[in-house]
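Appendix B, record 7
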Amino acid sequence: MVRTGSAGLTIAVVLVAAAGCSHQAATPVTAPATDATSTSVATGTVLFTEAPPSPSPSPHESSPAPSGTQYGYITAVDTARRTVTYDKIDWFTGAAAAKACAADGVAPGDGARCHDYYIRNHNRLLRTVSLSPTAKLTLQSPNDILVQLEISLAELAAEHDNRLFILTFTSGAVSRVAEQFLP
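Structure tokens (predicted):
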């Protein structure tokens, strides 16, 4: 799995349509940008963009509660405290993915990377957030990538490695964790 990166705060939810696969697109969700600059591309979608990190970020951060939707790799799950720690990434699709790849000097290649999607991760800062008591947790079905299977927090703790997730925040806590399809 390739993880490349930068950080920001224009937020929208869209599932990728990969070669030969069709995904039902979710309704875009946008949160107000604080220090971020919004990027708009006519034929693509920038799903997460943020201002560059400070020169010396700590390797772990428990910052003010985010809102909206963020993409990231879950690095730890604390079932007793009901928290997840994740490495937030920038997720691009369509023309925005091609533009971000070009900006990062990444050659597109033959696969879906840079053509259909692109993951940018210049900031390896880890964030720890609380899960809502009613948080819905799902993983892709091994038999059908269009199906999300509901799982327990213990199952998420056991199965989170090397998977990209969409974290949805409501009232300062994570209300939904869903695995993101990667071609």
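Remarks on this record: Residues 137 and 155 are 9 Å apart (CA to CA). The first helix runs from residue 94 to 104.
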